[in-house]
Amino acid sequence: MKPVSVAMATCNGTLYLPEQLESLARQVRLPAELVVTDDASTDDTPRLLEDFSRAAPFPVRIYRNAQRLGYRANFLKAARLCRSPYLAFCDQDDVWAPHKLQRSMSEFERRDVRLVYHNAVVTDSHLLPIDTLARDAAPLAHNGPLSLAPLKYGLGCTLLVDRALVRFSSFWERSLDFNDGTSPEGHDQWFFFLAGALGTIAYIREPLAHYRRHAATASLTTWAGASPFSRLRPFLLHSEPTWLNYAAACERRADILDEIALGASPGEALRALDGAEKYRAFARLYRERIALYRAATLAERWALFARLVEAGGYGRDVWAKGRKSALKDFCCAVLRLERTVPPLQAAGEAARLP
Predict the structure, then answer these.
(1) Same domain, yes or no: 189 and 304
(2) Looking at the structure, do residues 21 and 121 belong to the same domain, yes or no?
(3) What does the pLDDT read at residue 337?
(4) Where is the domain boundary, 212, 239, 268?
(5) How confident is the model at residue 226, as a pLDDT?
(6) What global pTM score does this model have?
(7) Residue 168: which domain range?
(8) Using CA atoms, how far apart are residues 135 and 66, in angstroms rounded to an integer?
(9) Is the Cα dihedral 203, 206, 209, 214 positive or negative?
(10) CB-based contacts of 59-62 (< 8 A; 24+ apart in sequence)
(11) How many other β-carbons are positioned within 10 Å of the β-carbon of residue 306?
């Protein structure tokens, strides 16, 4: 049976941490170890972890950061410290189903699988259901290299990864988070990118955790209760800064894949080079869309739009933008119908622009 480590990042998690630790101890398939990197907590989190380590049915290793790293670097640190050939990322405030590790690890029986992720129940602070993560589902149970949309990813708390991907961590600081454009990618974006370029990603439709949302969560993601207008806004709006960031992030990924190819096995090198080519093409698509929205005259906009159509920029492939984006660009760029729509207010909305 292949061992799996749990990589947990904590920071002032006293309120919900005990429930998560208890759910780890109740796993049908126990982890080989729990590795915790605590990001300079000022509450009782270190004490709770120490108490748990003395009674846990598996080894617990706790590392305290002298200075706060932020959740991105803190999760990468936890991943580097894990010793098993597979690792599962763990937030401090969720609750895992007892068979999460057992069910997820079964997918690694396929040798080509580099990452497994699953559905989860989204809850409020009291674990009352709000939604699910079904919107992040992959189309197939097993998705081959470069078959998923280039900016797609599953949330970190649902990810289990082949630890071999951690060897590329030296490239991580050169990546660019496509949601904020100022930091390296989050651990979920980063490992999803690597796994999707170099191997197969497995998806489990069964919810295997309760993903808790509360005031202290690190991400800005919104859930149920959005107004119909807020759901329509991404279609009506273009956001040049967001698209510029997408293009830059894809170009960074292409450069990273080029470097990975230099030291990879022949098969992995070919996948990396193919991925680099596709990410550069996707970046060009966004830059061409920006040029379309910047064009001053109707004739210029029509010519640019026709060129995008002819080049397959709105095809059905995941590396194109699809028919909805074609309609959006025709209405909002060529015909300029978006002028009265107010600007985006939240990065979480911009991140899902079509």
Answers:
(1) no
(2) yes
(3) 82
(4) 212
(5) 47
(6) 0.90
(7) 4-212
(8) 38
(9) positive
(10) 59/32, 59/33, 59/34, 60/33, 60/34, 60/36, 61/33, 61/34, 61/35, 61/36, 62/36, 62/38
(11) 11
